[in-house]
Design brief:
The chain is mainly α and 89 residues long. It is built from 3 helices and no strands. The radius of gyration is 22 Å and the shape is flat. This is DNA repair protein SWI5 homolog.
Length: 89
């Protein structure tokens, strides 16, 4: 980025800002739609918090499976049946 002329960097930043504004607008519209369907903002925030917690727990489980696979000299995929896991889990 330091090799680019300042105009190019400025233009890239303007594009990025515009993309972020568009994403914000799309998310605001999605929130408005969900609220129109009867969801409350508190419900949505709780749901998002639970999804983050789920993803953190899943990541920890994947890390543990990976370490166990290394110890056993197998692939993580080979451990799934042993723990009754589906590949989509």
């Amino acid at each position: 980025a330091s090799c680019r002329p300042p105009e190019a960097t400025g233009e890239a930043l303007r594009r990025e800002i515009e993309e972020l504004r568009q994403k914000e607008l799309a998310l605001d519209q999605e929130i408005a739609q969900l609220m129109a369907e009867g969801y409350s903002l508190e419900e949505l925030e709780k749901h998002i918090a639970l999804l983050h917690e789920y993803n953190d727990i899943k990541d920890a489980g994947q890390m543990l499976l990976g370490k166990l696979a290394v110890i056993r000299g197998v692939t993580t995929k080979q451990l799934y049946p042993e723990y009754d896991l589906e590949l989509s889990d």
